[in-house]
Amino acid sequence: MQNNDTGNCLMSLNSSCSMAYDSVTAYVLFAAVVVLFTMCGNLFVIISVCHFKQLHTPTNILILSLALSDFLVGIFLMPVHSRFWIEPCSLFEPSLCTFSNMIGFHLTFVSVYNISFIAVDRYFALSNPFLYSKKVSLCLACIITINVWIVSLFYNSALLYFNGNFNHKCPSRCLPYMNDLWSTADLIAVFILPCVIIITLYMKVFFIARRHAVAIRATLKDRKKIGNQNNGDTMRLETKAAKALGTVVSVFLICLIPYYICTLLFDVLGQSYHRVVNITLFLFFVNSSINPIIYALFYPWFQKSVKLIFMCRICRTSSSLTNVL
């Protein structure tokens, strides 16, 4: 009788271990697919904007910077964060925890301000298109994006250094520490201020787009006025671009806001705080996977570029001059 009980216990234990192994295997495969999709999708955006000269516009430089930050999220943050779900910080050296926190803060800052400048760019392009074409150049867009990366590096280095995170001993969880003053300052600088700018400007963009839609309909009634027809086409393209980037911005905010809400509810969440933060962080990282899907749905140039890349036509001479618009 005792042998039967022992055998049943061993069978139950083996069954539990098998189920746990299967779930871990399924999770690892899912995480690998998400990471690979994030890297490949954003790499297509990077190659497209860099290679095809038609895509060398100020707006696309900002999209390129956003795609680069999303690509780095797929390389550095997603694999590390995925391992946290299987095993917490005990698997990681303190230096890896510090590096992960630094990259996470850096790329979050860059992504938020890339989205903010995209909102500014679209508002300026729609509200004053003639001045926009004269004042906003490719060089200016490059300077802005480079400065965003540099400022983010210095800001987040100071943020983590003055809160003692470079001496992180890696306790039960690999989460950064910030005192109340720095936490408030970071919340304003990286969340509240950019979100106010983004939401305000895109509300204005929405109303401008509605006015443009009315103007386009009025223009299309008079087919004989070629000049007005061209203006209508221009307004329609700008409005379509604003709507597409508005979708990118909206999805970004949906993925970002839950994380910062959770950071404000530390006392309320109690022991479940770490788990909830990890879930919201995963949602924020998934945004890096969603952006290429949005580009594929809304941007014909991205669809054509990906097709040319898959067909290896970018290796041909003068392929950078190919019409993808």
From TrEMBL:
Where does the G-protein coupled receptors family 1 profile domain start and stop, copy by copy? Answer: 41-295
> Keywords assigned by UniProt?
Cell membrane, G-protein coupled receptor, Membrane, Receptor, Transducer, Transmembrane, Transmembrane helix
User: What Pfam families does its record include?
Assistant: 7tm_1
User: What sections of the sequence does the record tag as coiled-coil?
Assistant: none
State where the protein is found: Cell membrane
Q: Where is the signal peptide?
A: none
A Gene Ontology cellular component where this protein is annotated is: plasma membrane
Ribonucleoprotein among keywords: no
Q: Does the keyword Zinc-finger apply?
A: no
Membrane topology summary: Multi-pass membrane protein
Q: Name one GO molecular function term.
A: G protein-coupled receptor activity
Under the heading InterPro entries, the entry gives: GPCR_Rhodpsn (IPR000276), GPCR_Rhodpsn_7TM (IPR017452), TAAR (IPR050569)
TM regions (residue ranges): 24-49, 61-82, 102-124, 136-155, 187-207, 244-261, 281-302
Q: Which family does it belong to?
A: Belongs to the G-protein coupled receptor 1 family.
What is the name listed in the Swiss-Prot or TrEMBL entry for this protein?
A: G-protein coupled receptors family 1 profile domain-containing protein
